[in-house]
Amino acid sequence: MNTSRLIKDNLWYIGASDRRLALFENMMPVPNGTSYNSYLLTDEKTALLDTVDQAVSAQFLENLTSVLGQRKLDYIVIHHVEPDHLASLTEVLVRYPEATIVCSLHASRLMKQFIDIPEDIKFQVVKEGDTLNTGKHTLNFVGAQMVHWPEVIVSYESTEKILFSADAFGTFGALGGNLFADEVEFDSEWMPEARRYYTNIVGKYGFQVQNLLKKASALDIAMICPLHGPVWRKDFAKFIEKYDLWSRYEPECREILIVYGSMYGHTESAAAVLAGLLADKGCRNIKMFDVSATHVSYIVSESFRCSHIILFAPTYNGGLYPPMENYLLDIKAHLLQNRTFTLIENGSWAPVSGNAVRNILAEMKNITILEPAITFKSSMKDTQRNELEALAETIVKSI
Ligand code: FEO
Question: Who's near 328: CB < 8 A, 6+ residues apart?
């Protein structure tokens, strides 16, 4: 069945959602599924704006062919060539070989690494400042390199004031009929997944996202059409503010995240004691994760949200407990900065995890470590409770 939706005059949503996908990029859990958005302009000329992942290709192709009917497809605009948006291009070209692919120069090269494109397919290479007129509508191309890949270009449709933003302003989560962010409980239900999507997918490219935000601020935008998640047609200033914070690596709030690794529960127990002490001192909304039990993408996301991160790190094989190391290397890879850390190390005969943590944090920008770090051997004893109390006091003062 055709599931396309008219979202504006001559503009159709023809994407689809996948609720069966377990791991996005075969890595990040997506319990709420994900949508792959694609749009179709049916103006004097017709223009398809991006395709979809292989998983929802059949639905997308049915939507595309149903809306076009007997009309030919004039243009295929490819903003981003990652396969979650490119995979169905092959099938589109089989059906509409006369269409011209419109994309950046880099995209025109990169897409051929992923799929075979027949020699006779026409290309129109565009760069920032170029336009594509389809009749009543004009797409104005804006460079968005490294948001999230180097070939990315976004487009601003100047008649209806629509920004086709590629991965920017996207979120994990399947769409359930309500296509627009103002039709769902975005702040309470979608924002955590929007944050997890941003931080894990685009988080490393804050500088480039800042560049795009600057360019976008010069545009009069009435609607934002991302490649994942709901379409924005009102009240998106708050979401843009979040993007601004995330891409400047500034915390959203002065709150505490506790991340612990624990093999037999001793380190976990110490983490619980400190969490209780902090709560008794008035700290609210403390978030606490077992680094082995929660997928690292959730902890990365919370690390972007919170100002203070407390690490309880066991020693392992003369180094750092591997799940903790994985988490730390992940936030480092995502260029997390401007955070305050507290370290508690555990080790039964030669505790070295504290130093291993410091070595990783030393390679991150603008990191403060609250001293003194605490060391315990195997398990924390009551005699060390005063050390934790003093540390809790130091943390509270810092917040
Ligand atoms: Fe949704 Fe970078 O692809």
Answer: 311, 320, 357, 360, 361
